[in-house]
């Protein structure tokens, strides 16, 4: 049953978890590293991952013998490494000849956008919200992701090199904190 209240709640919950605006410095960094970043590929791939997880997530994890906490821990470790990369300027995710092709998928679509936080949140939302309302919330978020990534060049110009460096390091620390929080909550601390 369609519910505007549920759609808004799901949309804002996923928006906070995905944190596309906070991830902008990461997207810009990956775009600079790989040479390109497709908003359409990233948002469509992320949307498909989230919708599939909405439909089959718990079953898939059960078949693989992976619990939701383990999945969240793995995602938090990847986010932690990305945060370290941003703060320290160390390159963990090496670029290669195919980086331009894969850059929109890994690590952008997964785990940045459709990461363990978003996927475990989707599982949690299923307990309280109708499927259609969660689906619409996912689609709305992917539209926002598309427009943010599509306009990275404008954001880059507006901030300048020094502004990007400051924001990158600041959000690197935020990403580290989010990764640690995800890790702690996954292990029950």
Write the layout of secondary structure elements.
Layout: H1 4-18, H2 24-34, H3 39-64, H4 68-88, H5 99-102, H6 104-113, H7 116-125, H8 131-150, H9 152-187
Short structural description:
The chain is mostly helical and 189 residues long.
Major sheet summary line: none
Q: Give helix % range.
A: over 70%
Instruction: Tell me the strand percentage band.
Output: under 5%
Poorly predicted spans: none
The radius of gyration is 16 Å
Count of folded domains = 1
N→C terminal distance: 37 Å
Shape: globular
Number of helices: 9
String of helices and strands: HHHHHHHHH
Mean pLDDT: 81
Beta strand count: 0
Category by helix and strand content: mainly alpha
Can you tell me about this structure?
By secondary structure, the protein is mainly alpha-helical. It has one domain. The mean pLDDT is 81. The longest helix has 36 residues, at 152-187. It starts with a helix and ends with a helix. The chain has helices spanning 4-18, 24-34, 39-64, 68-88, 99-102, 104-113, 116-125, 131-150, 152-187.
Question: What tags apply to this protein structure?
Answer:
single chain; 9 helices
